[in-house]
Amino acid sequence: EGRAAVTRAATDYRSQNFEYPREQAVQLKLLEHLDEEVIREAISNLSALLAVEPVLKRPVLEQRLKRLEDTAEDEATRASASELRRGLRN
I want to staple 42 with a disulfide (CB 3.0 to 4.6 A). Which of 27, 32, 53, 71 is the partner? Predict the structure, then answer.
């Protein structure tokens, strides 16, 4: 567990030419990645998933999105996290 471990595991997985599964649990984990491009991709995938299925771990998702809003370096990451978090409230 932890951001470094998630990043290492995800990088190893992708280096084997696999795509990350488009499942909420996987995408939720990818929000812990150190690469904000991977994080933005996960936010996009979660947005699409949540348009057609209920959120499974709302408190964890909200916590991770809030952290990204507050600490992400890239404005695009902060904005994407904020948009998804606002969408959870509706």
Answer: 27
Q: What number of residues does the chain have?
A: 90
How many angstroms separate the CA atoms of 90 and 85, rounded?
Answer: 10
34 alpha-carbon distance from chain centroid: 11
Q: What is the mean pLDDT of each run of 10 residues along the chain (90 residues)?
A: 92 94 96 97 97 95 97 97 90
What does the pLDDT read at residue 26? 96
Contact at 8 Å (CB) between 68 and 39? yes
Cα–Cα distance measured from residue 12 to residue 4, given in angstroms and rounded to the nearest whole number: 12
What is the tally of helices (H) and strands (E) in the chain?
5, 0
